[in-house]
Design a protein that fits this description.
Layout (H helix, E strand, L loop, with lengths): L1 E6 L2 E3 L12 H12 L3 E6 L6 E4 L2 E4 L3 H11 L3 E5 L6 H14 L4 E5 L1 H5 L1 H7 L5 E3 L4 H11 L11 E5 L2 E4 L22 H5 L13 E4 L2 E2 L10 H5 L4 E2 L2 H15 L3 E4 L8 H14 L4 E8 L6 H9 L2 E9 L3 H8 L5 H14 L2 E8 L6 H18 L1 E7 L7 H9 L8 H7 L15 H25 L1 H10 L1 H11 L1
Parallel strand pairs: 1-3, 1-6, 6-7, 7-8, 11-14, 14-15, 15-16, 16-17, 17-18
Antiparallel strand pairs: 2-5, 4-5, 8-9, 9-10, 12-13
Length: 491
Amino acid sequence: MKVLLINPPQTFYPGSEQPAGNLPIGLMYIAAVLKKADCNVEILDAFIAATFQKNGETIRVGMPFEQIKQEIQNRKPDIVGISGPFTCQIENSIKISNLTKEADPNILTVMGGPHVTLVPKEFLEEAKDVDIAVTSEGEYAMLDIAQAFEGKKQLSEVRGIAYRQNGKVVLNPSRPLIENLDELPYPAYDLVDMEQYLNPKKIGYRSFRDRAISMITSRGCPFNCCFCAVHLHMGKRFRAHSADYVLKHIEYVVDKFDVKNIFFEDDNLTLDLARFEAICDGLIAKQVKIGWETPNGVRADCLNLNLLKKMKKSGCQSVFFGVESGDQQILDNVICKSLDLNRVVEVAKICKDIGLKTGAFYIIGFPGEKKENMQRTVDFALRLKRDFDVGMHLFMATPSYGTRLYEECKAKGYIQQDLAWNAFAQARQPKGMPLITTGDFTPSEVKEIAAKALAEYKKLSLINHLKNPGKALKTAFDQPQLIVKYIKNLF
């Protein structure tokens, strides 16, 4: 029996950021578990193929569909597992299932990911060429599916999946989340072309650091932000690899692939302070030559002076905070972030004092906000930039499937019914139009507030560069891509 896991092409809409060539970590973990069980498994990475196909205003990045179909025919898999990323990219995943059935109708098609997890029954009713939908974590579910294919168990015994039986969709009981993440082998790095990901000059892809990869060291989120779907497909309970596992994993990629930078993509990297501090202590003690960053953001209230110093000493290049709103009332009662903005200011000051680069994420346009609330967020973000040089990353609220934000918007008529997939994708782009309209604001008014905020932020950034020419030159030398992007944005 042979399993082929496919990382589909992705579609980028007008105003999209340049694609980031990130490793398909989810598929690589699944492949590693299958390999450990002596399954014959391959990964077809149809995204990093670096073919850019323009169709009107959209660009599809990755292997042409006909070539993907040919690859499936040549490799002759019994099972094809397809990565189904967020809603905005699910169309390409469904297309892969169509191509698979065209190549051989007898191939079992399986798809997982956040979108599929949140609406498995509705998804299978629409995606007719997908045989099985995996809900939540996929490593052991895929292994059970492979064993069911071989006749070692029944599909009815496989927890955490949905499938068709006699023309109807059957939803099996949920699968318990993996208790001990350390039992997982390292992602199957040998099944992807690592040099394509590590090459900082990969054509067409965003790459801000030399020989950089992403790594996830924990899963789950105990918080309940209204816009976030993480806890819906990864659980509310925080689970993490041990510090020892993480350190050995880092040493492995450094030694084997000469990795120089790691992007920790955890949703709650610093939630367990003792674990995270042990990781920093280990990197320092072992003198691991690595730079690292937190592009997904961390909670400012999980940081302190001692830990931030250790972070910097262990190789931290920058730290991003998930702030969301600069209005405490909105943060508490609308977003339900459970975060004290005074603590954000304190940590921003500490970072500036010790010379650690910072950025912060903000979101405006929630139901329950008025324009003056949004302006308070903008003012807070600009204050942090002005006083502590905290980078501002401002987004418009987008209601992802399954979230409380989505359910509220749908129930109250704040969004159009039956939105197309690309509407979610375009709304998330810097030049996109928000989806939410309430009695207090329109999408164009939210865009106007964001545009004025960005213009003011650019002025502050320019002033900062002029005040600190040495720092600006160092950034230009270390990361020339950022300077090019900055100049383009400025003019």
